[in-house]
Please model this.
Amino acid sequence: MSKTHKIAIIGGDGTGPEVAAEGVKVLQAVSKLENLNFELTNLDWSGNRYLKTGAALPDDGLDQLRKFDAILLGAVGHPDVAPGILERKLLLDLRFGLDQYINLRPVKLFPGVESPLRDKGPEDIDFIVVRENTEDLYCGVQGFLHKGTPNEVATQTALYTRRGCERCVRYAFDLTRKRNNPKGKKLTLVAKTNVILSHDLWWRTFQEVGKEYPDVAMEHMLVDNAAMQLVKNPKKFDVVVTANLFGDILTDEASQIAGSMGMLASASIGDGTGFFEPIHGSAHDIAGQDKANPLAAMLSFGMALELSFNRGDDAKLLDQAIELALREGVRRAYFWGLG
Model:
């Protein structure tokens, strides 16, 4: 009898439950094909729950999640909840509380999907971003002075630690080596070392850890140049490692060159329970209309197969199935975005 894998499903808000349901179908298909046992638990943690109870998740939410092997999310965001509340409780607090210090975001243009970049095809857009996930401006060192007055002061501190930088950089080097790109193994550090002086910690960590990986080519790129190169020459990237904020912004840009934000998967992982979600928002304007692109959710749940359950072959099979469907034109016109 195979092991039972316990999975938490958080549909979330808007189109989130719809795309999550399609991702669950993928898990069910793999379960049947490979004789795997998935025990699925649906959690009603969402904007609707917050509006009813005043809490996006229960007080023991983190303890509940630690009992699962993986967490699968649809989307977060509700028009009747002030910005930042759900995102902090259902995303950031969970990432920090579960110490999910790596956020992986593969960027791939599938055959049959059109990029807005002229003359760019699948061979030009295939890289992965390793985003540090628990530090930077997201860690909550912030505040206000004289709030609501003409003398108001607002602060937000970017925090970096040697431990945080090193475990992220080391993961990125290992991933670059594992990908073994036939065009050459290359890791690009994206930072802003010429202006943000604390990024010197990223630079020094990158240089020191890199000595242990002589087979990996190393490149340092300023973030403004990286934003341009994603559009001008995305083929130059293999693996990118960067801080939390830059990773967030650059991968939203990258989703567009890959055809749609509805095509990009993500995984937040550490040494415990992983969190898997599409990068897009909740898109309430099309919720319930069967217009949401579920592929990012499917691909995210596929990442769970590899990273949480050590089923890399099954994840590749899913990738190939989606590629075949898109190549053959099995899609709808509205696949190319969630609005």
Summary: The radius of gyration is 20 Å. The chain is about 35% helix and 20% strand.
